[in-house]
Amino acid sequence: MDSTLLVAIAAVFVVSIIFSMFGQGGGSVYTPILFLLGYATLTAISTSLVLNLITALSASIVYYRSNLVDIRFALWFVPGICIGAFLGGMAAAYIDPVLLMWLFVIFLIGAGGRMIYTYWEKSAPEGACPVHYSTGMYALIVAFSFFVGIVSGLLGIGGGIIIVPFLIFLCRYPTKNSAGVVSFVVIFSSLFGVFGHLTSGGFDIPLILGCAVAVVIGATIGARSMVRIQSGYIKAGFGVILLLFAVQLVLKLVQSG
Q1: Which of 75, 59, 54, 53 is closest to 176 using CA atoms?
Q2: Calpha distance 15→167 (Å, rounded)
Q3: Which of 218, 235, 240, 255: CA 20 to 30 A from 180?
Q4: How many CB atoms are closer than 10 A to CB 256?
């Protein structure tokens, strides 16, 4: 087993612990980590989607047992995100890899900055989950989920990092319950993103198998730790991590350019 693969497995283990605390697969970090370690862009993206799937499955079991997954509500996200993720996965093979990484940088900066801002943002105490939404809101959820699916399949991110702010700020969902819903939805975005990438290959089996074991263990640890961490710290810590990786990606792209 080469040293690069060992480093990748160790990094994935740590990331899976952290991101499963947010109900997310970790693709927003798996992809840049693998890219920075020298793996091809499509290999990094397809591997990230597989790891997202495993992380989300592991975390969903924990969240479901803690009554943090509203499956009836989460199912509204599934049709759009499945179709979008499959199409995004297919399209990734036809886009310049360097352009994909620059898109990823923009994505990381925007998402990271927004989550850090929430640490200082004054808001009302989080209450119970909303029971019902208007017809227009459900339509927005379906359209939004299709957009998230496209981005998910294209960049290998699962989509949780986009869905969490949507749930918290537009749907008024409590942070911890949002993590449970997102972990369930990411299962589908990752699975159909993988299906899309299967049309063009790019899968590194030894890398996937090695990282898969690390992800299963890490995701279970992270999901169990969620209930002991304050929501504000979760959001801010999440944002800092994303900005750090954005900087690393920019450096890598500038040097290689």
Answers
A1: 59
A2: 22
A3: 240
A4: 8
User: Is residue 74 classed exposed, middle or buried when 0-12, 13-18 and 19+ CB atoms within 10 A define those classes?
Assistant: buried
Helix axes 41-65, 175-198, angle to 10 degrees: 140
The pair of structure tokens assigned to 121 is 């943002």
Can you say whether residue 156 is alpha, beta or left, with left for phi > 0 and alpha for psi between -120 and 50 degrees? left
Computed from CA positions of residues 71, 77, 83, 89, in that sequence, does the dihedral angle turn out positive or negative?
negative
Question: How do residues 123-137 score in pLDDT, each as one tens digit?
Answer: 545 566 776 888 999
pTM above 0.85, yes or no: no
The alpha helices in 40-77, defined as continuous H runs, are 41-65, 71-74
pLDDT in tens, 79-105: 999 999 999 999 988 988 888 888 888
